[in-house]
Structure formats: structure tokens, C-alpha cells
Amino acid sequence: MDPRKKEDARLRIKNHLKLYSDQTQSQFIDFLTELFPQLKSVFGLYSVGDDSLNGWYSQKRICSARYFERYFTLVVLIGELPDVVFDDIIERLGSKDYLDNKEELQSLFF
Questions:
Q1: Helices of type H across 18-82
Q2: pLDDT per residue over 71-87, tens digit each?
């Protein structure tokens, strides 16, 4: 991220928090950087690598670009499989042998 954009973001966050005590500001920043670790680079704590991005995606964290919007919508888009359904299918696949029963395997998806 461009250093000017980082500084602008840092100042905007600080400006919103200036009504609070230093301790509360620090707690807010800790909270925000826990939810959105990308902000740590804004506060000069570290930069984000590909491993982090992949980890956040696999953990279904709000800071993942792929999952962010899902936290704020009540529907799953057409053509997408809800995570709870996917997780259920994976769990059920591990509990039974479906190789010889095509109909039962298909029933997991419909």
C-alpha cells in the first residue's frame, strides 16, 4: 500500500478515536487489528504476505476479501454453496462410504 494511503488511513482512524482516552483508543486499535490484520501495516506493525491472505481465507475470517461481504449479507448468491452446507457435506462424506451408492451421494448435494 502506498505510504500516503497508509498515513491517511491511520489519521482517519485516529481522528475517529480521539474522543476516547488513550487506553480506550489502544483497545480499539487492538480490536480492529485483530479483526483486520491488514491494519497492522497501517500502524507500522508489519506487512501482509500471501500466507496470511490464504490463512484468513481458509479460516473464513472477515478480513478475507472473499468472505467480507458474506458477513454482511443474509443470502448466498446463486451458484454458490453456503459454507454450512459445504462443511456438512464434507463431514458426512467422512462418516460413510458413498462410492457404491450414487443416489445417496447425489442426495448430499440436493
A1: 22-35, 39-42, 50-58, 65-68
A2: 877 677 777 778 888 88
Burial of 56 (0-12, 13-18, 19+ CB in 10 A): buried
Q: Which three cell numbers stand for residue 110?
A: 440436493
DSSP assigned state of 94: H
Residue showing cell 472477515: 62
d(CA 77, CA 73): 10
* Alpha carbons 67 and 56: distance in angstroms, whole number: 9
Q: Is the backbone of residue 18 left (phi > 0), alpha (psi -120 to 50) or beta?
A: alpha
Residue the block writes with cell 488511513? 9
Q: Model confidence over 1-43: pLDDT tens digits? A: 688 998 999 999 999 999 999 999 999 999 999 999 888 888 8
